[in-house]
Amino acid sequence: MEVQVAPLRAWDDFFPGSDRFALPDLKDISKWNNRVVSNLLYYQTNYLMVAAALVSIVGFLSPLNMLIGSTVVVLVFLGFVWMSHNKDILRKLKKQYPTTFVVAIMLSSYFLISYLGDVMVFMFGITLPLLLMFVHASLRLRNIQNKLQNKMEGIGLKKTPMGFILDALEQQEDSINKLADYISKVKE
């Protein structure tokens, strides 16, 4: 399957004034999750650019430690995904609590990296970009263009890098199902 890169969104759309940001409804986790997934899919190339800049800076300052940290995180992520496909309890945890699953991956990576070397490289080079993505995706209100683009690209999203990651976390299918339900309601 060929990986397609989503288009780079305009920076004034990505980070406009404070009127397009709001705290999520912490009482409705499903709605918050939907906002995060939609924003991760819509702004994925922007997030990739920001993460690449931060990783490049940290990688330039400490290349060996960044390589070790990145390798550990990727291996731990792949290990957790593999285990979740083979163990029902982990599959349910990943499906119901994706944030807990990601936190478990990050904590496991943190402890392995602290055992192997420089924790600050992990904190600034790997965790900071992920945290910035999550905070932006949580706070950024979706606009009409975001909603329409996600609905139009719904089927092809699994071919994007973020689509693969969300699919591994079993978050994309729910989002697409919700979008399909919404489209059918609009048609009625």
Automatic annotation (TrEMBL):
Q: Which domain of life is it from?
A: Eukaryota
List the keywords (alphabetical): Acetylation, Cell membrane, Cytoplasm, Cytoskeleton, Endoplasmic reticulum, Membrane, Transmembrane, Transmembrane helix
Q: Which InterPro entries match?
A: Prenylated_rab_accept_PRA1 (IPR004895)
- What GO terms fall under cellular component here? cytoskeleton; endoplasmic reticulum membrane; plasma membrane
Q: Quick one: a GO biological-process term for this protein?
A: negative regulation of transport
| Matching Pfam families | PRA1 (PF03208)
Give the membrane topology, semicolon-separated if more than one. Multi-pass membrane protein
* Annotated localization: Cell membrane; Cytoplasm, Cytoskeleton; Endoplasmic reticulum membrane; Membrane
Q: Where is the signal peptide?
A: none
TM segment ranges: 40-61, 67-85, 97-113, 119-139
Annotated family: Belongs to the PRA1 family.
Its recorded name reads: PRA1 family protein
The gene from which this protein is expressed is Arl6ip5
